[in-house]
Amino acid sequence: MPAKPLAQLPNRRLLARVAAATLVLAAATPLTIAYAASPSAGVSPTAVAPGGPVSLNVTGCGTKTGLASSTAFGDVRLTPGNLEAANLFGNATVFSNANAGAHSVTFECGGAGGQRVTVSLQVTTGAARGGLGGSIGAMSSGQIALGGTMAAGALGTGVWVLRRRSRMS
């Protein structure tokens, strides 16, 4: 038995309400999970030469202020990336005379006594690796062809669905 089009279903308003409620619930779920867990932080790139820039990011603080500190670059105030302050961001420049090796980067949420998380930053002796960072070097032509085929199939399916919808209206 073929399925009925959505327009012929008896409770379209009920379905629309259920769909809207599901979207609201799905949108709120990541925020509650992020605040329930301890914060997580990252430094990008994780290896840098003296004098090089690094990006700092901490997620899950639940505050609108933060601080990142390290012997590699000193103290950096972090600012919110959105209104909910789910992410705090900052940028730093590694000291030109920083010692090579691992340096701890401590992220502190809010003021003194706030939640802390520590990650490692590797200061290298030579220049930092730039460009694509090796993300394409190991990709074969077969993988590229498969990815292109999948993208073309998705695009074709989208066009087909939209054209079919316009005919049903």
Walk me through the topology:
Elements: H1 12-36, E1 40-44, E2 47-48, E3 53-59, E4 66-70, E5 74-80, E6 87-93, E7 101-109, E8 116-123, H2 141-168
Parallel strand pairs: 2-8
Antiparallel strand pairs: 1-3, 3-6, 4-5, 4-7, 5-6, 7-8
Structure description:
There is one protein chain. With 169 residues, the chain is of the alpha+beta class. The protein is built from two helices and eight strands. The chain has an eight-stranded mixed beta sheet, with no helix packed on it. Strand 5 (74-80) and strand 6 form a beta hairpin. It is flat, with a radius of gyration of 24 Å.
Quick description:
The chain is α+β, with helices and mostly antiparallel strands and 169 residues long.
Helical fraction: 25-40%
- Please report the total strand number as a whole number: 8
* Mean model confidence by pLDDT: 75
Overall radius of gyration: 24 Å
How many alpha or pi helices?
2
Which strand order spans the largest sheet, edge to edge or round the barrel? Answer: 1-3-6-5-4-7-8-2
Distance N terminus to C terminus? 22 Å
> How much strand content do the residues show?
25-35%
What is the global morphology?
A: flat
Task: Give unreliable regions as ranges.
Answer: 29-36
Instruction: List the helices and strands in order.
Output: HEEEEEEEEH
User: What can be said about the biggest beta sheet?
Assistant: 8 strands, mixed
Output the structural class: alpha+beta
Assembly status: single chain
